Amino acid sequence: MSEFISPVLSYSLLSPILVVLAGAIIGVLIEAFASKSIRPIAQVSVSIGTLVLALVQIWLIRNSGSTNAAMKSVIIDGPGVLLQASILIISIIAVFLIADTENFAAAAGAIPGSPEERESIARGQQVTEVFPLTLFAVAGMLLFAVASDLITLFVALEVLSLPLYLMAGLSRRRRLLSQESALKYFLLGAFSSAFFLFGAAYLYGYSGSVTFAGIRTSVVGGSGNDVFLLIGIAFLSIGLLFKVGAVPFHAWSPDVYQGAPTPVTAFMAAATKVAAFGAMLRIYYTSFANAEWSWRPLITGIAIITMVFGSLVAIAQRDVKRMLAYSSIAHAGFLLTGVLALNKAGLDASIFYLFTYGIATVGAFAVVTLVRDSAGEVTDLNRWAGLGKRSPWVATSFAAFLLAFAGIPLTSGFIGKFSIFSAAYESGSKAVVIAGVLSSAIAAFFYIRVIVLMFFTDPLEDATSVVIPSILTRITLLFSVVVTIFLGVFPSPLLDFISNIAIFIR
Amino acid sequence: MNYLTLIMAIPLIGAALIAALPKSKSLLAKQFALGTTVIAAVATIAMTMKFARGNTSLQFVESYDWITSFGIKYAVGVDGIALVLILMTALLTPIVVLAGWNESEGGRWSTKTFYILILVLQTMSFGVFAATDVFLFYVFFEAMLVPVYFLIGGYGSGERAAAAVKFLLYSLFGGLLMLASIIALYVLSGEQGGHTFSIAALSQLEMSSTTQNLLFLGFFIAFAIKAPLFPFHTWLPDAAKSATPGTSVLLLGVLDKVGTFGMIRYCLALFPDATKTFTPLIITLSVISIVYGAFLAIGARDIKRLIAYTSISHFGFITLGIFAMTTQGHSGATLYMFNHGFSTAALFLVAGWMISRRGSSTIADFGGLQRVTPIMAWSFFIAGMSSLALPGLSSFVSEFLVLVGTFTRYPIAAVIATFGIVLAALYILIPVQRALHGPTTPGNENLSDLNLREKIAIAPVIAVIVVLGFYPAPALNIINPAAAHVVSQMGFTDPAPTHGGK
Question: Which terminal residue of chain B, N or C, has fewer Cβ atoms less than 10 Å from its own Cβ?
Fold first, then answer.
């Protein structure tokens, strides 16, 4: 029995995570003690203030890498800082959307259709719990991207997932669909967590260590039992691939994207992807890099299936949120090529891609929150016909996001796609690049179809309209469009910044 | 002086000014657009004057870092081939604006938007011909699809949305294949001395013949879709039919030239060995295009589709000239691109006026226009004669050069292609006879002849057709050195004439 060692924590390096956690706890306290009337404004200010503060902290620590931030359980290094910053920026603009509480159930606990629910709506109740939940999820994501042992990684995974399960069920309209999606997300998520743990156990069995550095040492030494390693990598990957929504572990994502309140979908789609890919990049680039032979064929296959499947099935979608869900599956496939690249260029490209894709995704969902009729958001694509005529600016920005998803030059999506594919090609994964290019061509079809609907089709005579965006939503939209276009034309500063500091410390 | 950047900036500035105008001032928007395009044309003519004709290296070269981490530069420069295409673009755009003065009015969006799209398209067309960095070229190549897509879908007629989507998807598909090739080139350049996209550096890369063949195909299919060459041509008739006449002029006159220009600048320069491997196949496809396009044109009932089909046939000639790998063939092909721009412009513009007056684009609805609207009829006649390459008009020179250039190396292909000329006579003379001559058919009695604006628009086009027909030297002096340079770079020498010289 070894002696208890009191932990040494580097508070300054952990400060972004700690700040967000503190903000979340303040949020809970506000829920408990503040009067109902001031809760919404207090929560929004606390959330945004916290996230901005955390972002400032990250800026301050950007150059101080350390493997020892928390007893070798957390690594703060260039990629970690960049991923954390991406998560925070995406979260800030997503919180701007969440601030429009119109989208959330008046009383989350009330049974759909019950008198209790009607009463709470009549009283004008608002769910402000969503803000601390968001902050908890953000804290989990921040930790997920920098965790450097399997236990911390698992804790972070649960911290980020549990609030998301709840948030998915908070939709004000179509509540049954929302609750169903939350349950589905929870059950499948719990299932994948179990796989993850199982894999972690095998990796411990293989290497006798739960830290990434320890696993790496064993892999490099090659002394352990390869069967354990294979099983460990496979099950751990299942857990991670579930989070990023790769085929065949994607089944939850269309339902959850559709059922969750749209601002939550925006947050989840963008930020979770950054965190999950961040962790994946770290573990594959550091721990498993020398066991490339064992996972490369599998991940190659999954990447190809994911991008082709996502693009093909997206064509059949008639619901804008489901279409974006399948599009995000396809993008998960493209991002996996960055994992496969396993070189510096691949890492830089993945970080750039994650950031720009996240921003465009939040922007696209921001547009979805604006298209409504009297019963709430209109997600049926057919009813988006003629949007360009009714509100040219909203439709134009949506078109810009779609063009970025499709990877048309002069948008950030193109630079991302080019850099990630060229990195993968450089590493010899030519098949993936060809599959990627072909599925981009397929994907272009359904993005363009939406543009056709918005601009070249006459509006239906129904009550669909675009609501005037609130100031916060406007900021989100403007920011997303500007970033998407600017990084398409002048990506150099960001690319150079990423390439200068994105080096994994092992 | 940075001429190339200047002429690319002028339309953008014009577009920004138009964007600042209030929506109600549509006349002012048109005047601004015309003014901008005229200034761009004047600047381009000034640049052409400064061009050193005998010099085969790139001129007006500019190079600035753009995306340093990938070695991407904003690098532009022109040789004789690129210069004549830029000149053609610069001359055609003001004509299109003037000729289609009222085209924007039937559109989905405002007049302002129409001219902004046209001007942005002009900038991108200049860029695509001037780029000497493959990445920059690709950016222009793909980005220019967006304005064209909105021009067809927003201001066209009939099944405009479907035609726009078909155009875009075909082009995007080709573009993505090219992107895969570009990525491969980029990676290869990284392995052989540093990442770069400069055409000059990329043409020095060492590649296995399999790699070279695959990459060549990636580029070639993209360009063959753009050009368009049989069997990638099916989008063109729909797009040309649905677009406004002005947009069609830009589409067939300028955009499609990017395909044939790309074959010269990229396929030939980057993959000389693969070019040689695929030449027989491409010559065959060109000949099929010539004959097949001509037959389709003969059978066409719609006047805009007819012009589109004739273009397929003409693009067959251009591709034939390029891949014949002789100096005459190359000079002819480039001159053909230039001339085709003007004769297609004349055909489309006059056809557009005929269609808007008659309210129908079916050839059978016209008849006896010669008596009612003599000037319009004569303009169409001259444009048609240019299209069938009547001696004395500009297309004859280029078609003749292409055939001579091809005959020395591929006599059979040249002989079959010559039949294309006979077929051209059919597909032009049949509609000319039906629409212009004979008794005036009901519905055509009261058509008005060209007004002053339309006369001013068509006059320079016909002037170019006639002047270059009699005296092609000004254009050929620019083209010939560049064409000879391309052929010699490929390691070809012109075969000596086999008859008479012994």
Answer: C
pLDDT in tens, A410-447: 899 999 999 999 899 888 888 888 899 889 888 888 88
Kindly state the tokens that stand for A277.
């890919």
Taking the CA of residue A415 and the nearest CA in chain B, the distance in Å comes to 10
Preceding omega of B228 cis (within 30 degrees of 0): yes
- The answer, for A418 touching chain B at a CB cutoff of 8 Å, is yes
Rounded CA-CA distance A334/A310 in Å is 10
Question: Are the C-beta atoms of B423 and B298 separated by less than 8 Å?
Answer: yes
Q: Which of A422, A441, A492 sits opposite B66 (nearest CB)?
A: A492
Which phi-psi region, left, alpha or beta, contains residue A63 (left: φ > 0; alpha: ψ -120 to 50)?
alpha
pLDDT, tens only, B436-447:
887 777 777 777
Inter-chain touch A409–B169, beta carbons under 8 Å: no
A221 CB-near residues (< 8 Å, 6+ apart) = none
The per-residue pLDDT of chain B, averaged, comes to 85
At residue A180's C-alpha, the angle toward residues A177 and A182, to 5°, is: 110
Calculate the dihedral angle through the C-alpha atoms of A351, A394, B116, B257, rounding to the nearest 10 degrees. Answer: 50
DSSP secondary structure letter of residue B433: H
Hey, are the CB atoms on A456 and B108 less than 8 Å from each other? yes
Contact A426, B190 (CB under 8 A): yes
Report the C-alpha gap between B367 and A340 in whole angstroms.
66
Residue of A nearest to B181 (CA): A434
B409 close to B495: Cβ distance less than 8 angstroms: yes
Find which of A456, A499, A500 to mutate to test the B interface (most B CBs within 10 Å of its CB): A456
Whether residue B146 and residue A445 make contact (CB cut-off 8 A), yes or no, is no
Quote the Cα angle for B222-B224-B225, to 5°.
65
Using DSSP's 3-state secondary structure scheme, residue B65 falls into strand
- The residue assigned the tokens 């082709």 is A308
Q: Please give the interface size between A and B, counted as residue pairs whose CB atoms are below 8 Å apart.
A: 87
CB contact A422 to B (< 8 Å): yes
Mutate to test the interface with B, among A352, A422, A432, A446 (most CBs of B within 10 A): A422
ipTM over 0.90: no
Which residues, including other chains, have CB under 8 Å from residue B13's CB and lie 6 or more apart?
B36
Q: Which two tokens stand for residue A497?
A: 């910044």
Which candidate from B145, B180, B190 shows the least CB-CB separation from A437?
A: B180
| Closest by Cβ to B69, choosing from A389, A445, A499 | A499
Chain A nearest-CA residue for B110: A389
Q: Is there a contact between A329 and A309 (Cβ–Cβ < 8 Å)?
A: yes
Residue A324 CA to residue A382 CA, distance in Å, equals: 15
Q: What is the token pair recorded at A501?
A: 């500091």
Cα of B123 to nearest chain A Cα, Å: 14
Q: Kindly give the confidence (pLDDT) of every residue in chain A, 506 residues in length, as a single tens digit, with 9 standing for 90 and above.
A: 567 878 788 888 888 999 999 999 999 999 888 888 888 889 999 999 999 999 999 988 888 777 777 778 888 888 899 999 999 999 999 999 988 867 777 666 777 777 777 777 777 777 788 899 999 999 999 999 999 889 999 999 999 999 999 998 888 778 888 888 999 999 999 989 999 999 999 999 988 888 888 888 888 887 778 888 899 999 999 999 998 888 888 889 999 999 898 999 999 999 999 999 999 999 998 888 888 888 888 899 999 999 999 999 998 888 999 999 999 999 999 999 999 988 888 999 999 999 999 999 999 999 998 888 877 788 888 888 888 888 888 889 999 999 999 888 889 999 999 999 989 988 888 888 889 988 988 888 888 888 888 888 877 777 677 778 888 888 999 999 999 999 988 998 999 999 888 888 76
Q: How far is B195 from chain A (nearest CA, A)?
A: 11
